[in-house]
Amino acid sequence: MGVRDQLYFNLYESVFSALPLGILVLNKDQRIICANKTFYSLFNSREEESEGKHVQDFLPGRELENHIRCVQTDREVREVELHLKDLGGETKALKATAIGITVLDIVNAPTVLLVLEDISERLKLEEQLVQSEKLAGMGELAASITHELGNPLSVMSSTLQYIQGRLKGKEDDISNEIDVIVDSLKRMDELLRGLSDFKTPELLRFEQGDIHKALSQVLTLVSREARNTNIEIKTDLTPNLPMCWHDTRQLKQVFLNLFKNAIEAMPFGGYLMVRTWFSPAESSGSRSNIIIEVSDTGVGINEEELRLIFKPFYSKKKGGSGLGLPFCRRVIEAHHGTITAKSLSGKGTTFTISIPLGRRKDDR
Q: The domain 204-364 is classified under which CATH number: 3.30.565.10, 3.90.1200.10, 1.10.860.10, 3.40.718.10?
């Protein structure tokens, strides 16, 4: 590369280096002429390892290659969305914009400026928004179903139990059939109760208090069941956690759901671990949080199922309604917090809840 060429590239780098976008210039063979620091950080690469390499070494896929060829021919701007796995195994979403340019006295052919924008977080936020809208619709549906079916089911169950009482000692076959119907009605009633719980986050009442108090009360409630299944409960609760605004009743239900799920995931015993800690604000615009972590050493959840566990009515448990975890998510999001899950099949599962300390204007 000549002195004049080097000056051009130094100018490119000085302009591009401060931008939060990955930017690289490709020659007619789609090989990298130069790139900025953001590009190198996106791909955990160094300058000397990247220059001269084909763009496919970093961004494989026929769609991008075809777009670049078209840009080299018609000089139009083209965009494509790419999904790549990073070194940690997580999928990263990139928007690649190819722009045709001509660099005089450097490359005697049209070249391409490729702009890469990491849109992973934006896509996650959009997905969360869609999910929240779906859950809000589910809440309205739940309220309607509970209202319309609750009373008829109650009347049917009471009537059948009355008939069964009148048949006591007579017609055993008919009495047994009624038992089956009553059990089915009870199951339907349990599902309605689940739907009723699912819509209740709209009625949250916030008070400032100690998260540990709610945790301890629920742990006491499930301790007997844990002992009966040879499960040891361990806690690592950070002392003197700051008070935070929360709805104690609803959070207790969230903790109860998580603890019961953990116990059911360890039919042959194991450990239920509950940890808490304080996470200070990382910047002036962010908020401090209380973190609650619930882990078990149970059967775990495979990667495919893990993506579905917060969706309504999805359940692998026998007789499960699939409303427990969506309910938990709604409650935590109503606290302006987050709940996430990590798991390995056969190794166990960890749920992490983050609840901000401060109160917001829409907290009732």
A: 3.30.565.10
Measured CA to CA, the distance from residue 115 to residue 123 in angstroms comes to 18
Q: Which residues contact 1 (CB under 8 A, 6 or more apart)?
A: 9
Class of domain 3-118: alpha beta
What are the angstrom distances between the C-alpha of 235 and each of 198, 241, 246, 266? 28, 15, 21, 17
- Taking the alpha carbons at both ends of the chain, their separation in whole angstroms is 66
Note the pLDDT tens digit of each residue in 189-221: 766 666 665 554 556 788 888 999 889 888 988
The total of other beta-carbon atoms located within 10 Å of residue 199's CB is 21
Residue 168 has pLDDT above 80, yes or no: no
Going by C-alpha positions, the residue among 355, 306, 310 that lies closest to residue 332 is: 355
CB 327, CB 198: distance < 8 Å: yes
Dist. CA 27–CA 4, nearest whole Å:
17
Lowest mean pLDDT among 12-16, 56-60, 156-160: 12-16
* DSSP sequence for 233-301: EEEEEPTTPPPEEE-HHHHHHHHHHHHHHHHHT-TT-EEEEEEEEEE--SSTTS--EEEEEEEE-SS--
As annotated, the residues of the chain forming the CATH 3.30.450.20 domain(s) are 3-118
Given a contact cutoff of 8 angstroms between Cβ atoms, the answer to whether 344 and 299 are in contact is no
d(CA 27, CA 111): 5
**What CATH number labels 120-203?**
1.10.287
Task: For Cα atoms 253, 214, 310, give the angle at the middle one, nearest 5 degrees.
Answer: 35
- How many C-beta neighbours within 10 Å does residue 275 have? 16
Q: How many CB atoms lie within 10 A of CB 327?
A: 26
What pLDDT, on the 0 to 100 scale, is given for residue 34? Answer: 76
Higher pLDDT, 110 or 313: 313
Interval 280-325: pLDDT, tens: 887 766 789 999 999 999 999 888 888 888 887 666 666 566 777 8
Q: What is the pLDDT of residue 1?
A: 44
